[in-house]
Amino acid sequence: xxxxxxxxxxxxxYINKNDIDLIFETADQFKEVINRPIKKVPSLQHxxxxxxxxxxxxxxxxxxxxxxxxxxxxxxxxxxxxxxxKKGETLIxxxxxxxxxKVDMVVxxxxxxxxxxxxxxxxxxxxxxxxxxxxxxxxxxxxxSYSIREKLGEVGGKKVVIVGxxxxxxxxxxxxxxxxxxxxxxxxCGPKTLIPRYITELGVKYEPNLRKALEWCDVAxxxxxxxxxxxxxxxxxxxxxxxxxxxxxxxxxxxxxEIVIMHPGPINRGVEITSDVADSSQSVILNQVENGVxxxxxxxxxxxxxxx
Amino acid sequence: xxxxxxLTSKEVNIILHRLACQLIEKHLDFSNTILIGIQPRxxxxxxxxxxxxxxxxxxxxxxxxxxxxxxxxDDFRRNEKPMEANKTQIxxxxxxxxxxxxxxxxxxxxxxxxxxTAIQSFGRPSGIExxxxxxxxxxRDLPIQxxxxxxxxxxxxNEKVIxxxxxxxxxxxxxxxxxxxxx
Lengths: 308, 183
Hints:
- The structure holds 2 protein chains of 2 kinds.
- The longest helix of chain A is centred in the C-terminal third of the chain and has 20 residues, at about 285-305.
- Chain A contains 11 helices and 9 strands.
- Chain A is α/β, with parallel strands linked by helices.
- A 5-stranded parallel β-sheet of chain A has the order 7-6-5-8-9, sandwiched between helices.
- Chain B starts with a strand and ends in a 5-residue tail after the last strand.
- Chain B has helices at about 10-25, 40-55, 110-120, 165-170; strands spanning about 1-5, 35-40, 65, 100-105, 125-135, 150-155, 160-165, 175-180.
- The model of chain B has no long low-confidence stretch (mean pLDDT about 90).
- Chain B has one domain (about 10-75, about 85-155): Rossmann fold.
- By secondary structure, chain B is of the alpha/beta class.
- The longest helix of chain B has 19 residues, at about 10-25.
- The chains are: A alpha/beta, B alpha/beta.
- The interface of A and B includes residues 32, 37, 41, 71 and 307 of A.
- Chain B: Keywords: Glycosyltransferase, Transferase.
- Chain B: This is Pyrimidine operon attenuation protein/uracil phosphoribosyltransferase.
- Chain B: GO terms for molecular function: glycosyltransferase activity.
- Chain B: InterPro entries: PRTase-like, PRTase_dom, PyrR_bifunctional.
- Chain A: Catalyzes the condensation of carbamoyl phosphate and aspartate to form carbamoyl aspartate and inorganic phosphate, the committed step in the de novo pyrimidine nucleotide biosynthesis pathway.
């Protein structure tokens, strides 16, 4: 009988390969469930989950909420814009107040790296990290790997290139950990200003030339240019970025093989990828969104199993 | 751990044929009937019954599905052991069909309760029946009884009835195993 080795999902670096396998096997079953005429199971009827988003999110928040509702959990969602955090309440106080309403699990996004880890050590609830600053975004990495596994059969032995703003990306870091854990080779590609200086010490390759990177890989994960985090100019102009690091159909067709295109969303169409690439048969972007619900159901279900 | 053989391979075979005949008596040509094996262990029994109906009674094309009830159980988090999900495979709607649930052992009835809820995701059947190889008497928590039963068994709570199938365990056999009581 299997269960997760952890009580919280704080980041990929805190879990192991067996956990990932278990999450994927469980997600397979949930994917079947969400394709039924009636897409709901009653497993988590007695569980209450709070979604606390200190940072904006559409996709992740909706995906988590839907996953929780499909499992029949009671859900409350709250964003900072309408909360007392603005009045100066501390993180622990905010969460403890919510927990005194008998909440079993907290899904949190926060702008500070390590916020989820900090919370897990200070409050009594199961914590799921839905993104902490530029640190980790574990469920995104899991659904990315799950989508690769679905499209190519397995993740082990595959070559994956992460293109774009690796410096500000929590998706990149979680993906690197998750892919390496499953035996994939990882490369990062992007303007040098957007690549962390010591990234190669994580055992990933760096390639400044997009064409060479694409020729090497089986899967390209295109990151979004995070305009809101770009406090200084990291590249001369958006136009120049898209000429150097944007993928269009002509570039894809000129490669001697068919690669899989992924994107964590939201897409800046015409910047990282053009519309004809985003909507092509090589793109699994919408599958990623569907798989996101199944993977998050699996994570929540498996963590809820460990609540004593 | 002591164990006793309740049914040998030959006896299992005779019972399977009887159960198949009882199904035919009620469902004739199975034109409006669906067999559903309850995962994980009811799968083997369901496949075997279908095989007998096809090979020996020439009833072809009986729809067979497998239903996993893990996410519908009422002992989530109450059970000491974590529960592992299995594959649900029902490639048809059960709307207005006669459904026969097939499981190896009927014990507390809670699995069947979960299955009754789970099947609703696939439509509203016109009726549901239950076929089990082993019916453990006097152990039910819920008012659920089989419509077709292979053998009734009286066993106390720390005994376990284990059904072996040749596809999976090498030989058809039903065992009564007494769990060791920790002192």
